[in-house]
Amino acid sequence: MAGNVTASDVWNAIAGGKRISLAGLAVNETLSGNLTLDESYGNLLRIDPGGAARDVTLPAAYEGAWYLLFNGADAAETITIKNAAGGTVTTCTQDQAVLLMSSGGVWFYFGKLTAPA
């Protein structure tokens, strides 16, 4: 499917046994510095801080925005997640995932999960 896709198009594709791919939904990135997210990033983020603690800054909050961020560090490296104004929303440690959601103009974390050892 290309161009404008309707809910009916998606339903018909699934009903026909086709797989649906959402290009750009997931990102796997190793950082060399702090990161500021924008509309080019997908909702599912696997971030390796790259050997040091890093900041990830969220875009301006808007209704319905969300990210699931997983800290894929190979050592004890913390990601500090900040809002667009620079305030800390939460932190994410090695092998931890954080669900971030926006309600209007505010970012909050909805929960944290830690990968089993």
List keywords for this structure.
five-stranded mixed β-sheet, 117 residues, globular, mainly beta
Helix and strand arrangement:
Layout (H helix, E strand, L loop, with lengths): L6 H9 L10 E5 L4 E2 L7 E5 L5 E4 L8 E6 L7 E4 L5 E5 L3 E8 L2 E9 L3
- How would you name the oligomeric state of the polypeptide chains in this document? single chain
By CATH, the topology is: Jelly Rolls
- Across the major sheet, the strand order is 1-3-5-8-9
Into which percentage range does the β-strand content fall? 35-45%
CATH level-two architecture: Sandwich
Task: Briefly note the structural class of the backbone.
Answer: mainly beta
Distance between the termini: 40 Å
Q: What is the H/E string?
A: HEEEEEEEEE
Tally of individual domains:
1
Write up this protein:
The chain has 1 helix and 9 strands; from the N terminus they run αβββββββββ. With 117 residues, it is mainly β. It has one domain (22-114): Jelly Rolls (Sandwich). The chain has a 5-stranded mixed β-sheet with strand order 1-3-5-8-9, with no helix packed on it. Strands 2-4-6-7 form a 4-stranded mixed β-sheet, with no helix packed on it. The chain starts with 6 loop residues before the first helix and ends with a strand. The relative contact order is 0.15.
